[in-house]
Amino acid sequence: QVQLVESGGGVVQPGRSLRLSCAASGFTFSNYAMYWVRQAPGKGLEWVTLISYDGSNKFYADSVKGRFTISRDNSKNTLYLQMNSLRADDTAVYYCARGRGFGGSYFDYWGQGTLVTVSS
Amino acid sequence: EIVMTQSPATLSVSPGERATLSCRASQSVSSNLAWYQQKPDQAPRLLIYGASIRATGIPARFSGSGSGTEFTLTISILQSEDFAVYYCQQYNNWPPITFGQGTRLEIK
Question: Is the peptide bond between B15 and the residue preceding it cis, with omega within 30 degrees of 0?
Answer without folding.
Answer: no
